[in-house]
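Quick start: what a row looks like.
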Amino acid sequence: MLNRISVHLLMLFCASLALYSAGTARGVTQGDSGDFLLAGLTLGIAHAPGYPLYTLLAHAFSKLCFFLDPPHAINLLSAGFAAATLALHFLCSIELGLGVGSAWAGALALGFATPFWRHAGVAEVYTLQSLLIVTLLYLALRARSETQMRIKLAFWLLVGLGVSNHYPLTLLSLAGILPLVSAKKSDLASWAKASPAVLLGLTPYAYLLIQAARGPQLQYNFSHLSSPSQVWSHFLRTDYQYETAARAGVWADRAKLFLNLVWSTVGALQLPALCIPLGAWAWLRDRRSGRRFATTFLIGATSTSVLLLLLLSFPDTARARAHLEDFTFPVFIFLSFFVARSWSLWTPRVAIALFLMLTAQAVFNFPKTWQRGNHISELWARATLASVQPGSILVLCGPEAFAYAFVHDYRGFRPDVTIYDHY
């Protein structure tokens, strides 16, 4: 028989899955969607660093959902990852000692954030990465009260899987997770003993070597990698031309970009952002573990933006802000726990009023995140391909070229045209 927590957990998962699934795109959308669809549908190699875990899961899910159009199935996979992320977020709040109402508030604050909701309907790696980060956080919290080795083994395995999906976000997010681990010598020894499990989580990268050796299976993908050194270069993103060119950003530019990212994060959270200072204050008053939670989550929320600016040196341009917006997913995850903590400070009437305002925020964000009718990239690619002369060569540059490659290589539209992407 289900207990009270399980009932709420099931309600949250089913409701969020239904909401996200209803709004998923039916085909290719803007940005990197076309690249991930091509890689998943054809077992190709996506842009650096390759994202082998997402590629393998997307391919398997497209085969499992044989009754759906394969691109739609892969887009639905993102909805499933997003719903599972909110469910694990709910469990994390319970492990933090918060009530069911607070757990709902924190999960909805994350789920209604515009970037998170928007990516829940398209082929992208970020909802999978969010699920891995929240699961790591849950295991770290469980390990505070349970000493079984299996929890530590699962933790390190998921670290490896996170690296196999999006290693920059995985490594940066650990700054907001590892401080929760017990500092006792006996516990640290057992954590170290379990750490080789991370190697098992890295095995999806063997896929890059295998597929690279087979040669390109499509006219357009990144499977020109033919040696371990090229795969290593791909993993390190050394061929990411934009990031290399962006290193000219001066410190004033970096500081301005950081402030713009912070402002966009607050704007994406909207109303719940007002609860963050209250949640931090409530935890800082708790001298037992609250201060540790507050400090750890603040580190996790700021490490992504700060370290990215230090390491990548992006200038403050519109393109840089758009490029780095997706890297703020861990920020939403950690800050939403402050929203959850603040919920316990309110009287029932105030909490109900805030919940209604949160619902109004969801209604407001709904048109901006609805991807079901997002056909503009595919229609534009088809129109362009249809307009060129037979035997033409299209030279493209940038992520929008992925939609052309998807329409041309997967849909089989205008096979007489050659596409060359100088991305």
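That is the whole record. The chain has 21 helices and two strands. Residues 241-248 have pLDDT under 50 and may be disordered.
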